[in-house]
Amino acid sequence: MTDHGVAVPERAGSGLEGPRAKEYAAVEPVPIEDRNIGPGDMFATWVGANANNGTWYVGGVVAAACFVPSLYVTALANPVAYIVMALVGLIGFRAGVSTMAITRFAFGIRGSLLPSLLNTTQFIGWTAVNTFIAAISVSFVLKELLGWPAYGEPGSDATMLAGIVVMSALHLVSIAAGHNSVKIVERVGVALVVLLAAWETAVVFQQVSLSQIVAWRPPPDKALPFGAAMDIMAAFSLGWVPAIAEFTRYCKTKTSATWVPMLGANVGLFWFALTGTVVTIGAAVATGSYDPNNSDPSAVVSKLGLGMVAFLVIIITSTTANAINLMAAGISLTNMTAKMKALPALWAVTAVAAAVTAVPLYTGGFLHAFILFLEYIGMVFGPVFAIVIADYYLVNRGRYDVAAIDRRDGRYWFCGGVNRRAAAVWAAGVTVFLLLREAPLCVETTGATFPAMALTGALYYLAAGGRQEHHPSAGEQVLDEQPGGEQEAEEGVGLGGGHHSGH
C-alpha cells in the first residue's frame, strides 16, 4: 500500500500488526503514521554527528597537509560524500527500511549479510574511536577531581578504563529508547558544541595569529600529501552513509531526508574540522611541536589550559556522535538475524564497543590504527554505495518492491540469495581502490576513494545490462504528498511491483 505517496507494504510477520514498535528492525518498513522526525531534529542530528571530537581529530590529522590545502580537502571531499549520503537517504525515506536492508535490493537477501557485518563492525569501531578520545577527557577530569594519572602519564591505563566505563554508561542512556532518545541527546549536544567551538577558537587566536597558522609547515616526516588527505577526509564522511536510512526512514518529508541532513552534516564537519585544524596548528605554533597523535581535543584543551568545563563538553559531544554510531551498528545487526530485536541489538553493540575501546591501551599507536580504520571504510563502503546508487537510480529507475525484501522466492533472492554480479563488481571496486591508492597521481591529487567509486558504479551499470525496460504495475506511479504540506509529482516514488533487472 502507499500512505501519503510513500510505499509502506503490509507484510505478514513483519511486526507491523497490532501495537507499534518503539524501534523498527532493519527490514520492517516504517509506516507514515510512525514517522516523527522533522527537519529541526534531522539538522541537529547531523550537525551533532560531525561537530564532535572525532571530526576535530581528523581536522588535526589533515592539518599535516598545511592550513590552506586542508581547507581545499574539506571543501572538496565532504560535499561529495554527503551527496552520496543524501542519495542513499532518499532510498531509505521511500522504502522505509534501514541502510543495510537497502543493500538487499542490489546484493540479494543473503548478499547483504557481508556488508551488514562489515557495517556493524565499522560503527562499533567508530564508537570505540570517539569513546577513546572522550575517555582521555574523562581521565583529565578524574585527575582534577581525584588525583588519578591522566592519559599519557605513568599508571593512566586504569584511569582510561574508568573513563571507558563512564562513557559506555552515557551511551546506554543515549540509545535506551532508540531514535527517540537519540533526538533528545542531539538537541542538547548541539547547544554545548557551539559553546566549546567558539570558546576554544577564541582562545587560540588570542595566542596565535592567523598569519602564523597559514605560514606553519609540519616537520617533513609528518607531512601529508594532498591525495592522502582527501582519502582520509572522504572516508571519514562516507562513514556516515551507512547510518543515514536509520533516520530518514522516520522522516516526515523528502526534504528532511535529503537536503536537511546533507546541510547539517556539512555545517558540522566544516565547522569542527576547521576548528580541529586551526587549534592543532595553533598549539603546534605555541609549543613548537606538532604530533598528530596529540590532535585530539582533550590534549589540545590541556595544552591551552581551558579547564574542566571544556573537558565535560567534549565528553557530552562524544555521546551525540556515538548515539548515531550505535543506532547504525545495532540496526545493521537486525538485518543479519530476524531473531534479534532492535533495542536488545543496540544494547549488545554498546557492550561490544566498550570492550573494543580498550584495545588501543594495549596495542599503542592510536593515530596509526585510526588511519588504517579510515582506509578500511573507504575501501569497503565506497564501492558498496556506488553499486546501491547505480542500481536504484540508473538500473531500476527508482523502483523497488519492498514487499519482496525478505522473500526467499522473490526477485531479491537472485541465485541462492546472492546477486553474484554485484558481489563481483564490489570485489573489483575494492581492487581498484587498492591499485589507485598506490598511484602517484591519486596520492598527490584526488585520492583513491572517489575515482574508485565512480569506476565501480559505471562497471555495475554495464554488468547489469544498463538501464532496464520497466513495466509499472497499477499504483506504482503516485503523487508524492508528504505530511506538512510538501507535495510533488514524482515518478518512481512507488516501490512496489516494479521489474527488477535480471542480474
TrEMBL record:
Region (Disordered): 1-20, 472-503
Cell compartment(s), UniProt: Membrane
InterPro entries, sorted: CodB, Pur-cyt_permease, Pur-cyt_permease_Fcy2/21/22
TM stretches of this protein: 56-75, 81-102, 123-142, 158-177, 189-208, 228-247, 259-286, 306-333, 345-363, 369-390
Ranges of biased composition (kind: Gly residues): 493-503
Bilayer topology: Multi-pass membrane protein
UniProtKB keywords: Membrane, Transmembrane, Transmembrane helix, Transport
Family statement: Belongs to the purine-cytosine permease (2.A.39) family.
Protein known as: Cytosine permease
